[in-house]
Amino acid sequence: MAILWHPEEKEFHLRNDYLSYIITLLPDGSPALAYIGRPLSPDGRYGRLIRFEDRALSTHQPGLPPSFCLEYVPREYPTYGRGDFRFPALEFVCENGMPLVVDLQYRSHRIYSGKPHLDELPATYCESDAEAESLTLVLEDRAHQIEVHLHYTLFANHPIVARRVSIHNSGSKPIYLKRALSAVLDLDSADWEMLHFAGAWGRERHLVRRPLVPGFQSIGSSRGSSSAQHNPSAIFARPNTSETSGEAIGALLVYSGNFSIDAEVGSHGTTRLGIGINPFGFSWKLKSTETFETPEALFVYTAQGFGEMTHHIHRLLNRRLIRGQWQKRERPILINNWEATYFQFDEYKLLSIARSAKDLGAELFVLDDGWFGRRKDDTSSLGDWKVNREKLPGGLESLARKITDLGLSFGLWIEPEMVSPDSDLYRQHPDWAIGSPFEKRTLGRNQLVLDMSRSEVVDYLFDTISGILSSAPISYIKWDMNRHITEPVSAGLPPDEQGEFFHRYILGVYRLYRRLTQVFPHVLFESCSAGGNRFDAGMLAFAPQAWTSDDSDAIERLKIQWGTSFFYPPSAMGAHVSAVPNHQVGRITPLWTRAFVAFFGAFGYELDPEKLTEAEKAEVREQIAFYKQWRILFQFGDFYRLEGGRSGDGSGNFVAWMSVSEDRRRAAVLVVQVLAQPNPGFSHLLLRGLDPSLNYQIRVRPAVAVKNEASLRYNEGLRRGDELEYVGLLLGGDGWNGGSRGDFASWLFTLEAH
Known about the structure:
This protein is α+β, with helices and mostly antiparallel strands.
């Protein structure tokens, strides 16, 4: 790993064993991307890869060659107004609203070991300086006294470059940022496809793959959260790229607020990619001597397909984004009372659920919504975080002690960012809610959103939640956020700073998370936003797992977890077994199919164990005991997507994936058949990630009993790793699709080196 500077050629070469990222200075003094891809020789010089050509209607600046036109060259941090008509990374206006034409030129640079720290924003980090090397390019516009620092970090053991930007006003007057992207990549080809992860509540992060076309294409959020509609991640891949081969560049924003990921295919076959804070509705008053920091963007390059990209980003997020005591710890098996009781519970019912859960082998009991204020439904009491003594006469401490005395840990649901109009907090502080108090406010789930951009609100919530966490033996918090933001107006900001609201809101959320996790490092925080509306890398820096979706139906979860897995590791995915008919879609699936799918994540249950039959309880005991034996593999193993249907998005009739231990001696393979088929043929499922030289003992567990086990048992016994990778498991035949099985069948294979 090295970052090389060649002063004669004015060229920077960021290089490790996985990739080269080469920056050169253009004739106007601005930096340009000359190359990103497979590692090139450190002895070479590559500025010649950027070519200049005089074209019809092209523009050029006085004193520079006529062939040099900004519209046709790659640029590292482009601005608008001097001949580059593609979307810019940076835009300013003056106090009077006049646009500033900014001309950023290289002034200096610094190359150093390790990675700098960010104070307010979450970011990846290093535990030793040997893990990474960093470059800071200092650019300036002397006329307008603007200084921009482009920060790059190259990780030693990953094909990943982290980028972010610091923007400093050196002048005496304020200026207004209208756009400040975290990074731009200018690529010299338009032969790319865009993969992104779209959806809505209950069907988050479904994979979408489409070719780039001439013009502008974009995904993003303006909802105040990263959203279920679009995740702040995307992949730009060659048309032939698959799980196992081909070139791709993944882009992930470490941010939880409004974002955009943009692609513009130019008129001459080039592509500009941009990622950062959504410029829609954004404005930032940059006062004299002040600096604005953008969120961090991660670019991961692969020439070996999506699988390699996934493994590297999973390892980096698990080891160098997630922090604290829960970074490497196994996640506990929990049971949540929500779908068992909703709001209708008392202490007797909760303790009954907890006793049953302990008998089944669960490790953590989570009390969900309804424990505070006068909360009987979703119309009141958010903000009044005092225990409802009618439901819990002894308070949280008494309930938590009784549950921990059973041998379970105790967890609690909160929704701190919200307030109900029918609450004491709102009656005392109506101005703490977002929106003008003189205009109509829009409700979502009968609630308003607290103004997290205000320090007094963050301080109140910190004091309140700290009091709760100190009052009882609480080891887990489920932090929910059940609506999007409307009327984005803050009573704490002057009129010319209202455009800062959305970003200041998420900075306030981060500030509260940071303070709580520092004071209560033993608490496992799980982020939630009506399911997966805020499942992003920014949240993972504070909450090492997230509720993947409110839809826990096993078949819908195939597509959700498939899409989520491209960037986010299984240890971060809350995945639970719920009762049937499923509460979201009404589907009835086998209990073991529900468990098999949920095994590949932070495992738990969303049901009333007292309503299970004795046979079902026996199955749940077996599931929990099995998961405990294989938990490290499921949560922290290398994840491989094996079969996702013709479209490769996890929506096929057969869906298969697997996890492999770091030493490649253990693996688990899941195969799910959505709909049964009559008289099927055979097929081979090729496994990945195994040691070709090892023999593996294979065992298979079907979700339901099988009439004819001949085909099923064919796969059991000792098999070499090379055979499993090149020949695979045999699927199909009557042993798989007998009449006793029906739809939603599944099989879990375990492999252990022998």
